[in-house]
Amino acid sequence: MKISNETKIGVLTVIALTILVLGFNFLKGKTFFSNKHQLFAKYTNVQGLLKSNPVFINGMQVGSVYDIQSDKNMKEILVTINLTKEVNIPTNSAALIKPNPLSTTSIDIKLGDANTYLKKVDTILTQPSDGIFDAALGRIDPVLSQVKGAVKSLDSVLMNVNSVIDANAKNNIQAMLTNLNKTTASLTVSSASLQTLLNTQTGALAKSLNNVSSFTGNLANNNDKLTAVMTNLDKTTENFSKLDIEKTLTNLNNTINELKGTIGKLNTNTGTAGLLLNDTKLYNNLTATSNKLNLLLDDVKTNPKRYISFSVFGKKNKGTPLMVPLPDTINAPYIKQ
After folding, report:
1. Sheet of 125-126: strands edge to edge?
2. Do residues 269 and 275 make contact, with C-beta atoms less than 8 angstroms apart?
3. Assign residue 58 a region: left if phi > 0, alpha if psi is -120 to 50, beta otherwise?
4. What pLDDT does residue 316 have?
5. 47 and 94 share a domain?
6. Torsion, CA 41, CA 47, CA 52, CA 58, rounded to 10
7. Domain boundary residue among 140, 158, 190?
8. How far apart are CA 280 and CA 71, in angstroms?
9. CB 216 within 8 A of CB 226
10. Residue partners of 53: CB distance under 8 A and separation at least 6
């Protein structure tokens, strides 16, 4: 069977179109003959990311961006990632968009340390990344990036200073300077007073030093007397050291013990002194004798003729003697038995 040229041209055209479509989709990251491992990532800003842009892990391309979709509000952008290599990605890994002003924007996956791994059609975590300008500064000149950060910090400091130094703060600073001026004037007056104090002719310090000099001069003049006093004091302390203080204290302790024994005996009914102090019989006997003596004296005073008689003019009184003493004094009352 002979095939016409038109048929051959048609078949070749179909084959060429098929190869063209497959090659174009392959360049876009779409494959039809290999197992695809898709992941999803959600961003608020894709920073110029396009379809078929590469996806890297530790600098090695493991896939590409398959699709980028968003809703009408443009608040969240969903990026579909096709992984062309079989890799284990921990669940706490994060996908960062890396803008490149000199090349295409890419996605860099930072691996985590979890023991579980993402499965097909799972959503990977995302992290915000620096913009194109910051990335360019970091690549072109790291010093400029640091200067930019320093300028931002300086701007924040200046804003804080402007917020602190308000009208009240300025008034406080002015008052502080006024007080400092007054303090300086006070220091000047104090310096003048100190100069007067330190004057070698009329100053109080000079007079005090003169008094000290006079005192030390008197000590020098009486050096012999002080030496004699110290010698006598030395002899006195030597004599004290020769005394047998321990023996004296022992004798004193023995005397105190004997005195305690004597006082103890006085507090008992043994011995003459103890009986005199503690036995009431002697007191009662002395009281009775005193009463009888008072009665006798009162009787003699009342009836003297009973005891002294003169026979020249009269006779002896033989009346009844007194039975009760006369209360002739208030300082020595009688005690009835």
Report:
1. 122-123, 37-43, 77-83, 60-70, 54-57, 106-110, 94-98, 125-126
2. yes
3. left
4. 55
5. yes
6. -70
7. 140
8. 129
9. no
10. 64, 65, 104, 105, 106, 107
- The reply to whether 28 and 97 lie within a common domain is no
Locate 80 and state its tokens: 């579909």
Please, are residues 41 and 70 in contact by the beta-carbon 8 Å criterion?
Answer: no
Residues in a beta bridge with 40 = 80, 123
Q: 3-state DSSP call for residue 73?
A: coil
Token pair 């284990």: residue: 88
- The pair of structure tokens assigned to 252 is 């004193």
Give the range among 173-182, 192-201, 207-216 with minimum mean pLDDT. Answer: 192-201
Inside any domain, residue 183: no
30: three-class secondary structure by DSSP: coil
pLDDT tens by residue, 293-332: 887 888 777 777 777 665 555 555 566 666 666 555 444 4
User: Any idea which of 23-32, 94-103, 277-286, 303-312 has the lowest mean pLDDT?
Assistant: 23-32
Range of the domain at 63: 35-140
**pLDDT tens digits for range 205-250:** 777 777 888 888 888 888 888 888 888 888 888 777 776 777 888 8
Task: Give me the torsion for CA of 138, 139, 144, 145, rounded to 10°.
Answer: 0
Q: For residue 201, what pLDDT band results from cuts at 50, 70 and 90?
A: low
79, 27: one domain: no
Q: Give start and end residues of each alpha helix (H) in the chain.
A: 5-27, 132-140, 142-164, 167-197, 204-221, 223-242, 245-266, 272-278, 280-302
| Least confidently predicted of 38-52, 73-87, 230-244 | 230-244
**Residue 260 CA to its chain's centroid (Å):** 60
The alpha carbon of 66 is separated from its chain's Cα centroid by a whole number of angstroms, namely 63
Q: Are residues 14 and 61 in the same domain?
A: no
- Helix, strand or coil, per DSSP, at residue 39: strand
List, in sequence order, every beta strand (DSSP E) within 77-142: 77-83, 94-98, 106-110, 122-123, 125-126
Q: Is the pLDDT of residue 9 over 90?
A: no
- Report the interhelical angle of 223-242 vs 204-221 (nearest 10°): 60
